[in-house]
Design brief:
Elements: E1 8-11, H1 17-28, E2 32-37, H2 41-53, E3 57-62, H3 70-79, E4 85-90, H4 106-128, E5 131-140, H5 154-174, E6 180-186, H6 195-198, H7 201-210, H8 219-230, E7 241-244
Parallel strand pairs: 1-2, 1-4, 2-3, 4-5, 5-6, 6-7
Helix pairs in contact: 1-8, 3-4, 4-5
Length: 250
């Protein structure tokens, strides 16, 4: 397939987990993919190599999000490899510390919001200066913004709720350029980030039971939805929060 042939995509946090699956899927569709990473250079290089081995095109760029000048650093690195962008996927995020709300410190709160809300906001604003008309912006949200299911990560849920609001408002702002903006909301996905608690029989069974489909979500389940939103097939879909929890909110 080559639904994205000739287009350039940037995936933040694109070297691991859901981000890696998105990078690989967009590359399979023909896009040249900028695989962003913050710290894990080896994972980024591995992702690029595997994309290239499969016949795709990709390059890695580094910028630590949640720091002063992060958006400028990211796009400066991108500009060294490409001129203009067609698809922006704001995937990079941190869950922050887990625990009672009363134990959240100002530093914890500020860091989660800096990475999960502030960074995608300014990455997107600078990205719009480079985005060609008819482009696609996809924000990776979470099913947790629709119901109080994990109060132990309240700052994360709050930051993602801010991203949801940004999605809808930005869609109205940039629609005149033919740019669509949507949010994809996964449930629990089998990634390295969740491995410590998910990969034991009891937790696995509990999470599987959350979905009517009877299984745990995989990164490709989310990547496939993102690929649709990045394509021309999604041209009449914008400002939407798309449930990708496998029916976990039913």
């Amino acid at each position: 397939m080559s639904t994205l042939h000739g287009r350039t995509a940037l995936v933040t946090g694109g070297s691991r987990g859901i981000g890696r699956a998105i990078s690989e899927r967009l590359a399979r569709e023909g896009a040249t993919v900028a695989v962003h990473y913050g710290q894990d250079e080896e994972s980024a290089r591995r992702t690029v190599k595997e994309i290239e081995a499969a016949g795709g095109r990709a390059f890695a760029i580094r910028a630590e999000l949640g720091t002063e000048g992060d958006a400028e650093a990211l796009w400066s690195a991108f500009d060294e490899h490409a001129e203009g962008v067609d698809i922006l996927v704001n995937n990079a995020a941190t869950g922050g510390p887990r625990g009672p709300v009363a134990e959240v410190t100002p530093a914890d709160f500020d860091r989660v919001f800096a990475i999960d809300a502030k960074a995608p906001f300014f990455v997107t604003l600078l990205g719009l200066e480079r985005m060609r008309d008819g482009g696609r912006i996809v924000n990776i949200s979470t099913g947790l913004t629709h119901g109080a299911r994990m109060p132990e990560i309240t700052p994360y849920t709050m930051a993602k709720a801010a991203l949801d609001a940004f999605t809808a408002n930005l869609a109205k702002t940039v629609g005149g350029r033919g740019i669509t903006v949507n949010a994809v909301a996964p449930g629990v996905i089998d990634t390295d980030m969740n491995a410590a608690w998910l990969r034991n029989p009891e937790a696995w069974a509990q999470v599987s039971a959350m979905s009517p489909l009877g299984r745990v979500g995989e990164p490709r389940d989310v990547a496939d939805v993102v690929a649709f939103l990045a394509s021309d097939d999604s041209r009449w879909v914008t400002g939407q929060w798309i449930d990708a929890t496998g029916g976990g909110l039913l």
